[in-house]
Amino acid sequence: MASSEKLRLRLVGITYGASGINLYRFATLGGEPLPGFDAGAHLDLTIAPGLTRSYSLLWPPPAPDCYEIAVQLEPEGKGGSKTLHHGALVGAIYETSPPRNHFARSSEPAPGHALFAGGIGITPIIGHFRQLKQLGQPVRLYYWTQQPATTLFLAELGKAAPEDMRLFHTGVDRAVPRLADVLATVPADFQLYCCGPAPMIEAFERLTAKRPAGLVHRERFAAALLAEPGAGDRFQVRLQRSGKVLTIDAEESILGACLSAGIDAAYSCEEGVCGACAVRVLSGQVIHRDSVLTPAEREAADTMMICCSRGRGDALVIDL
User: Fold this and answer.
1) Which of 34, 209, 275, 293 has the fewest CB within 10 Å, making it most exposed?
2) In which element (H, E) is residue 123 found?
3) Residue 160 half-sphere exposure, CB side, CA atoms within 13 Å?
4) Closest CA to 117 of 201, 184, 174
5) Strands 139-145, 165-169: parallel, antiparallel or unpaired by DSSP?
6) Please, which pLDDT band fits residue 63 given cuts at 50, 70 and 90?
């Protein structure tokens, strides 16, 4: 992330959320209020030098000067969750980005909302559920977990009205409805939101492909395999504000070239998932390889993620 955007926060609490999941609470050093955010937002947390990960912010925040995240231990992951679960100490100072939101609630009117969560994917979904209930809007949450012990927010959701909440334990119940079974019962004009493991997101996108794009929203934890032929070709990009022209080699990203050239570009995940490196496209063609932009945003061709997306030809000009 760009140095000018960093927040310095103290880890003030670690609590048990569910089996393998801890809740981490961060607060400002002097009690000053933090930037606000809406349900669906996330931040980038620098866990250790060279180790930054994106986490959904739990909504509502516990206090004006606090943020809270839920982290599931991933033994086969890249180290972020293991470092937090095994090494985080209350009182330690961490750097984070301000909140960003690529999974915000749509402003388009709809007669109802259907929310779909799988495992730790409940973290952005629970905020939408709470917010929609608070606003008095019709909403139903469908939540798949392996068993009660691994179910985050089990006590809270257990108090929800049956017509608002369906909880499925795939490791306990013999007859658990599939995502396809549930989606078949959801009216075509409902707003849909989904977050969960990659197979769930891929199934969601496939099953909702014929619904209006403005009604379908998903949040990924890992990049989709979106590369297309020619995505590794060498190309040039002009940085409008910096006045530089960079040549991007086949195995290089625009982001990497910018950092090598001394350009202070914002970034975090470097996988096209978090949206931190989004820049305006002023002209030229883009080969999109991210998992952030919607089909309509790609069609508009005015934004790209420079950590993974590439230019086609030598006419690309971006706002850096």
Assistant:
1) 209
2) helix 122-134
3) 22
4) 201
5) parallel
6) very high
Q: Which amino acid is residue 249, in one-letter code?
A: D
Q: In what order do the strands lie in the sheet with 235-239?
A: 244-248, 235-239, 310-318, 278-287, 303-305
Residue type for 105, please?
Answer: R
Domain boundaries, the chain: 3-96, 113-219, 235-318
* Strand residue runs (E) in the chain: 7-18, 21-28, 42-48, 51-56, 66-72, 93-96, 113-118, 139-145, 165-169, 191-195, 216-219, 235-239, 244-248, 278-287, 303-305, 310-318
CA atoms of 230 and 243, how far apart (whole Å): 27
176-230 per-position pLDDT tens digit: 999 999 999 999 999 999 999 989 999 999 999 999 999 999 998 766 655 444 4
Integer angstrom CA distances of residue 53 from 39, 100, 144: 19, 13, 24
13: three-class secondary structure by DSSP = strand
CATH topology of domain 235-318: Ubiquitin-like (UB roll) (3.10.20)
Assigned architecture for domain 3-96:
Beta Barrel (2.40)
Cis amide leading into 177 (omega within 30): no
Cα separation of 24 and 45, whole Å? 11
Confidence of residue 173 (pLDDT cuts 50, 70, 90): confident
- Domain 113-219 belongs to what topology? Rossmann fold (3.40.50)
- The torsion defined by the Cα of 289, 290, 291 and 292, in degrees rounded to 10, comes to -140
Q: Dihedral, CA atoms, 128, 133, 137, 139, nearest 10 degrees? A: 60
- The total number of residues shown for the chain amounts to 320
**Residue located via tokens 């991007």:** 248
Name residue, tokens 């849909």: 192
pLDDT tens digit sequence for 77-125: 778 999 999 999 999 999 999 999 999 999 988 999 999 999 999 999 9
Q: CA 193 to CA 211: how far, in whole Å?
A: 13
286: left (phi over 0), alpha (psi -120 to 50) or beta: beta
